[in-house]
Amino acid sequence: MKKSDRLLSIIFLSIIGLVVLGLFFNVNWSQKSSAGYLRGNVAVVDIKGVIVSAEKIAGRINKLRLNPSIKGMIIRIDSPGGGSAAFQELYTEVKRVRESGIPVVASIASVGASGGYYVALGASKIVANPASVTGSIGVIIDFPVAVELMEKIGITMQTVKSGEYKDAGSPYREFTRKDEAYLETLVQDIYNQFVNTIEIERKIDKNELLKISDGRIFTGSQALEYGLIDTLGTFEDAVLMIGEMAGISERPKLVFPQKQTMTLFDILFTDIEEVFSLFASIPTLSYLWR
Question: What is the 3-state secondary structure (H, E, C) of 236-277?
């Protein structure tokens, strides 16, 4: 073995060894967590990436709403959406904060599309960067169909079901026109819920709203023209706006998630169930821009 090859092998084995040690001896790394919060009067809640489950973020919002020291909240959004139920839950929690008398500003950074836009509807005001991406009002459902692949490798799946549509969207059988018509009714119902929420929250005429609710995306500037947001601005603009809305004379003290130590195992495998759920074979209704 060459000397250079031996050196590479040693380096590789050393890295593997460090990973193993981290897993078994709890090497600590500093990460943000929702376990606690620093002192301040305006809370910042991040909605980032594709969201499949709303449980943790919704719980965080609810705890902050009940904190008497919190005078305002900023929902900082950088998300293309995710599960329709998850974002409806987040919208409801944000709206609950607003209705409790605590002003809420939604700040769209790079992306606040589909579900990312849906959650913003619960806020008192929506601020977006002019070059941000928002809109994508619509619903999508997709799933793999592996019938031909299974036939090629000689595998069949036997299914016993109680009704014709019990396995609609199964990857183990052909997707029929009747299946498509059935799932379209679900998509249309969730879509109508999205549009109705925009109509109520943004007070946009339904006929005009339907013209732009075809899944297309908009820049922040275009969204302002259509009435989907209130103003253009940065996160700092959102901070100044929430301070004024909350009656805070000086620049608000922002409340971010408090840091706590996490093991290497936690870093590698936190929320791994959400990652796997993105690749699940079952049909999933999503407010998601792709």
Answer: HHHHHHHHHHCCCCCCCCEECEEEEEEEHHHHHHCCHHHHHH
Q: Is 114 a catalytic residue?
A: yes
Residue type, position 122, single letter: G
pLDDT tens, 191-225? 999 999 999 999 999 999 999 999 999 999 999 99
From 142, 141, 150, select the one nearest 173 (Cα to Cα). Answer: 150
8 occurs within a structural domain: no
Name the pTM for this structure: 0.80
Residue 113 is assigned to a structural domain of this protein: yes
List the catalytic residue out of 114, 124, 132, 170.
Answer: 114
CA distances 12 to 78, 81, 215, Å, are 36, 38, 47
Considering only 81-85, 154-158, 174-178, 205-209, which range has the smallest mean pLDDT? 154-158
| β-bridge mates for residue 287, sequence order | 82
Kindly report, residue by residue over 108-144, the tens digit of the pLDDT: 999 999 999 999 999 999 999 999 999 999 999 988 8
CATH of the domain at 143: 3.90.226.10
Among the options 32, 56, 161, 166, which is catalytic? 166
Name the residue range of residue 86's domain.
Answer: 25-288
Q: What is the 8-class DSSP label of residue 131?
A: T
